[in-house]
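pinning this so it doesn't scroll away 📌
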Amino acid sequence: MSENESFTKKVSMDKKYYEEYYHLERNHWFFTARLNILESQIKKHISRNPGKVLNILNIGVATGATSQMLDKYGTVTSLEYDKDCCQLLEEKTGIKALNASILELPFEENSFDLICCFDVIEHIEDDQTGVNEMLRVCRENGHVFVTVPAFMFLWSHHDEINHHFRRYTRKNLLKLFETLPLKVVFNSYFNFFLFFPIALFRLTISKLLAKKQSDSTGSDFEIMGKSGMINSIFYKIFNAENPILKSGLSLPVGVSLMAIVKKLQK
């Protein structure tokens, strides 16, 4: 099997999952609170000049919630590898995503002020090439903003359903950005307050549920959030981290991990 064929097999999600994902991105506690956190970080570290219109590349746009948020801050180019997702995205939102791979970004060097890659590189076997490509198309003094799932001991059926290759620690994520002169503007774990209950769920209950036959995908997103009350409670808990992260405090653990880096002039 060629590298491209392997990449296709691993990255392409089931069409059914994308249908679920569209609703999850707009209603599920994880995605709605995460979107608030991501936007706060962009406001704090990247979009400080209200008059400047950023040229933004959003990689792995999925069903478009992050591109719709980023549209407030500049001109957004949405890129998505999966053709079915691109089609669903246009049908649901009108966003015409470029169908291309992070491993070969179809742009010239120094093309974008901001490159966002939210929960994408864990889907790629050769994550270093993906990061190198982002840095290549990022302008000098521009930013790359990445989020990933954290800690391999949290690996579960959720990761298998989402075709992940790995989960990250702070050390091995930042190591990917050592290829060029860069400044790490901010990095932190997040989804901190729910870290221990989610870890317990991942290590026990989710493994039992994964063995059962179900009409659902079996993703944690689909399981943890069906109840409106639980969804509301978890949103408030997760979203409570936003003021902490906005203050510049880096959290010591979390279910997820973020890094914002600035590409320096050579």
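📌 and the second one:
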Amino acid sequence: MSNADFLPQAAELGKNTSLPSALAPYSVSKISANMINRFILLLFLLLPACMLAQDLHFSQPYHNPMHFNPAQTGAFTGTLRAMGMYRDQWSSVPVSFRTFALGADMKAWERESTIVGAGLLIQQDKAGDAGLSWTQIGLSGSVIRMLNDWNALAAGFGVGFMQRRFDISGLTFRNQWTGDVFDPALPTKENFNQSSGLKPSISAGLSWIFANPDTRTRANLGAGIFHLNQPYVGFQDDAGEKLPSRIAIQANTTIQLNEFLDLVVFGVGQRMKTAQEVLAGGGGRIWLVPEETALQFTLGMRLGDALIPAIQYEFGNWTVGVSYDWNISDFDVATRGRGGFELAVVYRAVPVPPVKAFKSCPIF
């Protein structure tokens, strides 16, 4: 993850910025060791207890924060953030899963110690010969309120639409068998809905944000709940399954160790009825050019499923992350350890501070 994932900038935008000081970037100074120690302890106490997810999941959750908590909308360094993610899971078995995510959020309004964020997130998961897909399109908003120079609370709300769909053109049916040969040109004589129609979904979330304005140290802990209205999703007009709510808890922290090295710790837990996911990991970020270019190496684990090595490169306003799931569950009999490849690309627009006026030549 990037330290930019946590909070907005202030210092590099000049003295006229309206952003709170605790949302500002860093220079080098002391950090609150007790605060960080308490945060890390809270992270590891919460994750094992939380989680029973049938919705989409990602191995680099810090690159898709709105998927886990609408309160994360607008909580980043800069004025605009755009991200894209692609995940190819279990391609070594006959039925692979491909997941796509596109999102953008921005600071829509700022005044004194309050920031209002707005975002859009589009996601789709597709699998099988019939291309069974799960598409979600949602809008989210948040309000970030500073408590003091180091701490902030954020509340978020989201509304979206979902659709399940499949395509029978890739399937074969008994009616296409002539008795001697199979003829794909023959009609299937099957008549059923191939999409569930659009269903509304409501989400909400809260987040605590910590930032030392004098260092790269950042911390974030929050929870979101999705499908609060539990809509019915089905392929027939008179039948359907009630979609259970999804609860997600996400935590991220970055601790600056020295000018060139940061410690990174992250975790996420999700529960959706009887399905669950717990993912935690950590690593280090090496700054090749302080505050400009960095390499990050992490190792995560999705409990009971996979080991996940990941590498991330940050340069300018761009971040590119790659991870791979090495399957360690009983399913490795089919996958031979080959779980899933994931690629994330994130762009943040960070305004350049205005150049001070100066005279091109001395006046005598």
